[in-house]
């Protein structure tokens, strides 16, 4: 049964003492009804991952487990990140950095298990999605990748899955080039040759690749499942983070959901309607562990003020 649990994010100001972020948001959204209410049609995943027997009988070439990246190192444009309000690799502790520390702990808990919970199947593969464009999905995906890469035992691959409007490389100041779709379309192309290493040692990026009219069909293929298995095989500390197209704007996001163990849906507090949330959640039924990240909420000046503690002496 699909498990939905909330993560709250206040990337701008402090929490109000008048109630939690989710309690206040409940005035505008009925999250329980939107995610679990009656009348939601079932979603049949187009590709839920091949069995071992199916892979053995497949005509697809064998894909060896990917252990490390060997390409040239590219520098992340830290000035560009700072201007846009992102977390800075190896930068000072900030309020938004602390917020994403809270978010990533929940995802790491799903990946590894703990606190009485079992590890989520395929919990290393995480989808960052939203109902509509402009909800802050890519902003959250990049910040989450940078925060996860700060872990001492984590290797992060950030995949730009938004083929129609890729933005990950531009956001980080990295060169564009062959990427995810090219690897899926051409069995002779190795994924290692497309991954961009960065000067943040634990973070690598896979560009979206060339745009195609068959992106959904490629993502629903057995080759996609085989490649994703190869990325994490033998490497329990690698996280593959997907920045997807908006769920209600393009079909690939729903297919990507069938390849991941965890999904984080970014909900814009001042924009996402309950009906949009319900429709988007329906498309995520192929993923068994969906969490909400409430974005763009403003509070009063009192309450939680992450970052100040580290920036001021007593």
From TrEMBL:
<keyword id="KW-0067">ATP-binding</keyword>
<keyword id="KW-0547">Nucleotide-binding</keyword>
<protein>
    <submittedName>
        <fullName>Exopolysaccharide biosynthesis protein</fullName>
    </submittedName>
</protein>
<dbReference type="InterPro" id="IPR027417">
    <property type="entry name" value="P-loop_NTPase"/>
</dbReference>
<dbReference type="InterPro" id="IPR050445">
    <property type="entry name" value="Bact_polysacc_biosynth/exp"/>
</dbReference>
<dbReference type="InterPro" id="IPR005702">
    <property type="entry name" value="Wzc-like_C"/>
</dbReference>
